[in-house]
Amino acid sequence: MFYTQIARNKRNTVFLVCLFIVIVLGIGSAVTYVRAGDYISGAIFAGVIATVYTIFMITTSTNVVMRMNHAREITSSTDQAFLWHTVEGLSIAARIPMPRIYIIDDPSPNAFATGISPKSGAVAVTTGLMNRLNREEIEGVLAHEVAHIRNYDIRLSTIAVALVSAIAILSDIGMRFFIFSGGRNNNNKHPLIMIIALLLVLLAPIIAVVMQLAISRNREYLADASAVELTRNPEALATALERITDTHTPVEEASSSTASLYFADPLKKKAASLFSTHPPADERVRRLRQM
């Protein structure tokens, strides 16, 4: 069952990333069409901006997230021995280098992973997670985070953030072109294509954010399935998710920019929506108990 789910989530993620790239190129074309009636140069321009911005994000993101969340690194097995040995065992099972381990001093139970590749992976857990959950539940949560590293989810999220930022930049440029040109020099522009281009400039940033969050939600299902592959214990992960979700205290160090990285929503938003960073906990539990 979970192999089927892993395969389905990988297909969905690839589809969403391809759609992201199409939107980036489309909005670039729209910008130059609004300005000069030319769409090819805009696609090339957008591709260059998106590529440069993505490379910049990937090369500068390591360690930044840990500092933002005031996480303290554990450097030996004598400090938090159970946590150290559990991560070590899971990384061996996942066939990846052992991630660096961090602790966040916060009573709310939660965890997250970061790192753009398994070689630079890192796992952070709150003290609340270690104090409130039993060993099997902690192992399930850690397996979920190790799975994120093994599945290159963080790289995917970083690329998604970069593409959303590139789309926002292009949309802003397009609006300035339209405002300052005042709709002049429209002789070589088809009216219908002009309307479509303007709608794309206006709506693309919103669509991109929704897609970014869809990727974030999608990778949570994949990480759940991958964690079960590592532990063979879906019930422990399901009960861990229920206990973390039932805790209504938010993680103080979490922010909207890092919320999507956490195992469960650290901000404790009450209502699920298109702009949720995580899929509904009930659906995740249901899928886990079907495995």
UniProtKB/TrEMBL annotation:
User: Where Zn(2+) is bound, by residue?
Assistant: 144, 148, 220
Residues annotated as coiled-coil are none
List locations, semicolon-separated: Cell membrane
Q: How does it sit in the membrane?
A: Multi-pass membrane protein
Catalytic residues per the record? 145
Q: Which residues cross the membrane?
A: 12-33, 39-58, 159-180, 192-215
Q: Which InterPro entries match?
A: HtpX_protease, Pept_M48_protease_HtpX, Peptidase_M48
Q: Which CDD domains match?
A: M48B_Htpx_like
Q: What class of enzyme is it?
A: hydrolase
Q: Which is a Pfam family this sequence falls into?
A: Peptidase_M48
A GO MF annotation of the entry reads: metallopeptidase activity
Q: Which UniProt keywords apply?
A: Cell membrane, Hydrolase, Membrane, Metal-binding, Metalloprotease, Protease, Transmembrane, Transmembrane helix, Zinc
Q: How is the cofactor bound?
A: Binds 1 zinc ion per subunit.
The yes or no answer to whether the keyword Mitochondrion is present is no
Q: What Gene3D superfamilies does its record include? A: Metalloproteases ('zincins'), catalytic domain (3.30.2010.10)
What residue stretches are annotated with the Peptidase M48 domain?
83-290
**Per the similarity annotation, which family is this?**
Belongs to the peptidase M48B family.
Q: What is this protein called?
A: Protease HtpX homolog
Underlying gene: htpX
